[in-house]
Amino acid sequence: MELTKTDVSPPADDTYRPSEHERERQRFRRSRKRRHTWISTLCTVVVLVALGAAAVASPGWERVQSLFLDGAEFRAAFPELLRGFWLNIQMFLIAEVLILVLGLLIALVRVTKAPGLQPLRLAATVYVDVFRGVPTLLLVFLVGFGLPALQLQGTPSSPWVLGVIALVLSYAAYVAEVLRAGLNSVHPAQRNAARALGLGERQTLRHVVLPQAVRNVLPPLLNDFIALQKDTALVAVLGPLEVLRAAQIKADYDFNYTPYLGAALLFIAVTIPLTRFADRLQRRAAQRTWAETGR
Question: How many other C-beta atoms can be found within 10 angstroms of the C-beta atom of residue 85?
């Protein structure tokens, strides 16, 4: 059969081309965003300049500058502070792994329905209630000085090890509750679907429930670890030469508090990137929820 000229239609072009009205709206949005950015930046700079001018004009500024903002003192103390901060990083990394393992075990025990595990569920509940109720600093004192006083064989004697134990006991209770909330947030239909596909209980937990639970609670979990990074400074009361202890020794020796500012800057250098990463995860989680539910 011979095709006539009218039988041949041009190929469809599915490329989206916004209308002139839509392009105008996009230009307006971009212009408004740039204007808002400039206004926000200008207001921030004005406020910072005003605060700086007020601080410099205050009667005690010269004394504050000499005691807290001494450049020569900062340069002299910084190498020692950096070595001490490395111990804080080590304590944080070791404690983080142990907290995740212990917190996950406690969360799994608390969500299980097996009747024979009722004693373990009760013990896990008591653990969470007790160690969330005791201040972390008090727990550092109790573990750091009370555990060696028992004179048990194999008890660690290193102050930083005892401090890590106290941090793990404290933060595992918080992380366990976060993970338990994540496990409970996974819809039962997910578990039922996995079992219908032939997965066992352990396979369902490992491949279906846990990945979704961790994804749901990753932002608050990261916030707990940001707090943990700062609370490693509490171990200074036990005497290890971490950054806060190093700053205290240097400040007491020279009668100058600039080393404390140096220690604070080191913590800020780590916590601010972690905080921005946590904010990014929260925005992504909110966008994913909006895309899935349309709300």
Answer: 24
